[in-house]
# Entry
Amino acid sequence: MNSVYLILLLPLSGALLLAMIRSPVVAGWLNIGISVATFLASVNMALIVLRDGPFLTDNSMFYIDAFNVYLIVLTSFVGITTAIFSRPYMRYVLSEGWVNPKRMRLYHSMYQIFLVTMLLALTTNNLGILWVAIEGATLATVLLVSLYRTPESVEAAWKYFVLCGVGIAQALFGTVLVYFAADHVLHMPEAGLQWTVLYSVASQLDPTVMSIAFVFLLVGYGTKVGLVPLHNWLPDAHSEGPTPMSAVLSGLLLNVALYAVVRCKMLVDPALADPGWGTPQLAGYLMMAFGLLSFVVAGLFLYRQQDIKRMFSYSSIEHMGLMTFAFGIGGPLATFGALLHMTVHSLTKSAIFIAVGHATHIAGTQFIDKIRGLIKTQPAVGWGLLIGTATIAGFPPFGVFMSEFLMLTATMQSWPWLTPVLLSGLAIAFAGLFRNIHPMVYGAVPEGQQPVQANMLPVALHLLIVLWLGISIPSFLANWFDQATLLITGSHFL
Amino acid sequence: MSGWLLALIQLMIFVLGAPFLVIWIKQVKCRLQNRRAPSFAQPYRDLGKLFRKQVVLAENASPLFRMAPYIVFAATVLAALTVPLIAIKLPTAAIADMLVLLGFLAIGRFFMTLAGMDVGTAFGGMGSSREVSLSSLAEPALLMVIFTLAMTAQSTNLSSVMQYLLDVGVVLRPSLLFALLGLMLVAVAETGRVPVDNPATHLELTMVHEAMILEYSGRHLALMEWAAYIKLMIFGVLIVNIFFPWGLATDATLPALAIGFAAMVFKLLVAGVVLAVAETRLAKMRVFRVPEYLNLAFLLALLGALSHIILEVGV
Amino acid sequence: MNIVDFSLHEQAILLFAALILFTSFALLAQQRMLASIHVFAWQGALVAGATVLVAIVSKQNHLYFSAALTFGLKAVFLPWMLHRLVNQLGIQHHVETVVRPALVLLGAAALVVFSYYVALPIEKLSLLSTRNTIAVSMAVVLIGMLMMVARRQAVSQVLGFMSMENGLFFAAVVSTHGMPMVVELGIAFDVLVAAVLFGIFFLQIRDSIESLDVDRLNRLSETDQAEQTRE
Amino acid sequence: MALDLALYAVLAALISSAVSATAFRIPAVLRFLAFPLIGVSGACGAVAGVMALTDGSVLSTSLPFGLPWLEWQLRLDVLSGLFVTIIGIVTFAVAVYGPGYVREYEHGSHPLAQLGIFTGLFIAGMFLVVLANDAFLFMISWELMSLSSYFLVMFHHEQAANRRAGFLYLLMAHVGGLAILLSYGVLATFGDGFSFEAMRNAPLSPLWASVAFALAFIGFGMKAGLVPLHAWLPEAHPVAPSHISALMSGVMLKVAIYGFIRMTFDLLGEIQWGWGVVALLLGSVSALLGVLYAIQQNDLKRLLAYSSIENIGIIFLGLGMSMIFIGTGLPALGAIALVAALFHTFNHAMFKSLLFLGAGNIVQRAREQNLERMGGLMIRLPYTGVFFLIGCVSIAALPPFNGFVSEWLTFQAALQATALENGVLRTLIPFTAAMLALTGALSLACFVKLYGVAFLGQPRSRRVRHARRTALGIRVSQGLLAVICLLAGVFPNTVVNLLNTIPNMFIGTDLAAATSRGWLWLTPIAPEVASYSAPLVLVGILAAWLLTWWFIHPRGARGVRRGPAWDCGFGPLGPSMQYTSTAFAMPIRRIFQPVWGIEEKIEREVDSHGLRVTSISHQQHIYDRSWATLYEPISRWVLSAARRVSRLQQGNIRVYIAYSFFTLLLLLWVIS
# Structure
């Protein structure tokens, strides 16, 4: 049981420690070390879950089931790789004088705090704590977005802060309403927000309140997921913050927010199933609408981007939209695909952002028109970026293709007339990505562009895993996905 | 066995008779134009002389240039081999049906045009270019004619087509009328006669066939010319024997063959007269008027095919 | 049914609700910086008061604690901090001109009606009063957002944001007698940190654009003219 | 056994791509390890395919990869067998050709490893596509094929034009892939399951079947290069290294054909003749336009690429006819058309690869890809000259080579149109046959031009004049393909016998009659209806040739005398006096005027008195009309949509809050 606490305490103490340490070099290494420790802890816990199934801590504070366990492992894993990347990268940033050692300390400790909040949000059994954790993630990252103190970064941070604050406040109101609904079913105030309890009584909750609550929750957490039209903070924050931050934001934060939305949906669906209520699918419909809108609009946004990180943040929105859509469809196939997509997307996207970080380092700018001939300058980076983009664009044999394949088929089965929209969306997004990536990686090298000291291990690692998932899903993972599918949709898939 | 022998005899007639057909046409033309005609032996004399003369090759002529005449001649002879001349039952016709016949002619054209480009003179290139351009229109027309026949006779085998037409006797088929007209137009184009081309001229703006063989001399030239004669005769025979199959020997008995031979000679002479008259009446047209002419031919042939489908076998 | 049929404390709660709603209207209308900070302080105090009332009625002791927390945070700390910042930034006498104030107020009124209409179907599982308080708190939340839309001043945006939080607290307290303790603590902590961060950002924004007018934070734009300016 | 061999072929290709990774350090690895492995793969494939074709049994297995509930299903039946054979043969030829070809890159700046890795993946992908027995594996290997070939196209990515070509290629490949995916989606929905077995038994309503067909037609047609979805093909094929162009043009397009046949004849079940009409029309249009565009090209490889479009058109024409016949209940005739199409598929793979390999050799030896600067290569590259000639003869459909047989069969099938009930169809098919005839004649013109300009006459540039030395492997590979062209042409019965198993599997009938009269005679319908004896034709030609030579050729004296060209007595000849490629195609350009978009610019410079023309410059650019009509509008639309969307992100935070605000209100209003 204490494995959970280990997962949370390790990075927390690490954060405090890092806040003390003055030397950026040591901090960089320590950052990696702590992340590794966290990862080991999470793997240990995953093994426990694998051995004797989901469990609830004695004080019923934390609950680990198939749905969040693999997300926890994923989170801590991406934590490591990004830390590995951020060590040389932040040293470069420091040498460029964009930050001073003091802010480096802030960066490192906030990095760990962020991981804590992510893990807390995933592990907790309490909707309130979930809210607190996600708000905490905002607070932890908002200072990092403005780390460089450029006007743009300050502006981006402010927008990030205010928009997410507003959104998250709505989520809190939703939570209050859920609590209110629960209060009338089970008269035990302390347990009123415990997910396990709520899930057990979900079918008795009042549909009206729950539907209102879900609207607030969806708009609230949806802001964090980056659903159009609540997405505006996302590209700004991604493009202006330090690149490792963008990597974890895209790779982890969005996932966790989506996780929250899905958990809420799991509560709302049984409640709305009540015969007195007209549209039992309400939650699904809302999510589908949001998802589809985000998917298409974000795809179109890709075309006119001038900042490479901005572009990839839009691609994140697009994929988040796709997953939201799939979760909205419900149904085992779609859910399975969406769960898989959460994994592969966060792996691929963080890998891409790492490669992008190196690319911007090589070119000394984030402007797409200024980045040229990467493959000739530094083949590793160029190929990393190219393969990563191909992966995220959904080319087999990478895992993204598999998940998109599943989701498309699911759509084909339940909403055939929506598939053309999805497909054209995919095509548009694909063209948008490549017309920008192409000139960056290929072509002749502009003068004065030098290779840099880059560590492509994380990228290779991520892409290899994604490739592996694309060629065959290991059975235990498939089982977890299946369990999660069972939890979410109430029916097995395999 | 007798069949193969017969085939060889027919081939001989083809090869030896072709120059005669040419000179016959020339004679008639001269009569019509009140000119003194060369003697009937003239083409044979020309060929013989050419065969005796030494060959002069351009320095940069490639091996292909020397092979071409033989290939062209061989292909044309094979084509002739598959055309029933005096008797229908022709084993060689089974080897190669009408489509293959076209194929043979195409081989000849292919290598002749290549040879035309080989030395690298402007004339040769021009001739080849025009030849392929025009034939690319003529060939489909010819093919449509063949289609019409094949669909009528339910066979692409030349001798069975003739057999069929002979058996059914006189039937007024619009399709065959169109086909005949089309075939005549195409034949004129393919054999390079007025108004499409003029074998008697060496004016660079007008010549097509002559331009291609401009660089040839001696036996090579002889073979090319001879092949051209044979080609002319093939088309003549096709026209007369398909559309007027009467007199063709259906069995290999001597009298039948004799009749067949006589009929063939007669028909060819008539055809020659018709051609001569036409050539005298018409003037050579500009090269870029020719496509319109060929489109007409194609149109007729297509009409033939369609009218067959619509009017004759309509369900 | 009618207000006279309500028990006393329900009437009191409704009174509080009305007052809180009034304060957020006042916040929306108030254009002078210091004054609006004071209004906000009052709102916080009212929420705390409501909490105490509920605590008395429902005899849940942890509510006293959370009432204290709310009071300390919303009625004392935040106003004080904003006060200090405003002085520091030298905008205490800043008067913000809202575009079409009448229209905005009308909109706010409409929001009240709207949130009443939304909360209407909830009656079957709670007392009328609770339902109405939910409607009121939803209105407060929405008005807070409206304020953030209407105001160009960073400080007033923060006020709007915090008044949303007040609405949330009020809802939590009156409809469900307060959230579990852990959650309350967590939320309070977040609010605290948020407040501090807001302070930091005021300074950063001021450093970067020499003002707190959020309309001038528009470098990150993707419209055509923005691109022209960039090139 | 056969299936195992095929899998070994895949394995060998993968290994070769793996070992090529080391070429970063030692470039020679490619020559001495990677290409031999590819050769092994090709040989295995060819053997496996022939085995599958001969014993006609259906082998299937599954590999422990893929979806958790569906392993990779593989299956080798006669159809796959044919295509495995094609891929195998060409791959083998390429493997023989490769070492000599890449040697020069070893000193160049291009990373050979990239070439090797993706060549291996490309080949493995193609093999897997034809072996796949479930939609998932099919899509994976399909896209693997596209992606790796894209990286190969981008091998010379310095020129912007090549980058553009690569992008276009990848984009269209992806779009096509999505269409295919969707059509499989339809099948999987009704047959619930991605395995082809499930799809075969899918109870499809005719409407949905047509939907699936349309999607598949778009997807596979895009890959195969059907007009108007062909835009990527003439851009991408010439750009790749030549042995890759050979693989792409010779094999990859065939893989698309395979997908189409598998989808239409196998998975979709009941064939509707309406589909046949679509395929027939688009096929004939592609054939005609393809050759018309080909004949106007001056870039050697571009010309070949367009001619690929033409041949694909012919193949689809045959398939369409077969679908019409089958759909109207005449399976026997359908079988003829199908066999004709398959035969042509095989032939095109052979001679197009042969031509591309030859073109590669020319480009490498003469450093010249523009026909206008070539000439006289026949003497300089004799081997390539001969083999290329054979390629031209075959593709121009002259007897007794293979190209002729397939076109002959197609015509024979078309001639049976009178058997159709439906009058419209009966008139339609002769029409398309006429177009096919036109195409044939034009392709003859096209290849006369190609060969005449490139190989005959005098060299038009210095580099071409000094072209020499062809590596052994390059000669051998071309020779191999040339021999296959000849054999397939001279012994069509063997090929037809092998192909017969395919219609047998799909529609239960075949051309038993075709070869009933022994190896000498090919009689598709009946001896008296139509017969063709390729061996005798060959013998006849040789005999006639030799006899003539024997009669004509003078004994002893009077050989030939070499002298300057006569040229009607004009002055000495210069290379610039020859007919150029543009000039050669001019009459056709005038005849078929409006087909091309032509920009022509003629500049005359006259001397000071304005009397004498001192110089004339003539520029002409032929562009593909499909751009202006189809592609540019689409891209314009997308871009304008993107511009409109970007207003969303206009920078003011209050507006953003307003979005969130109104979204909330809207949703609240919606739910209550």
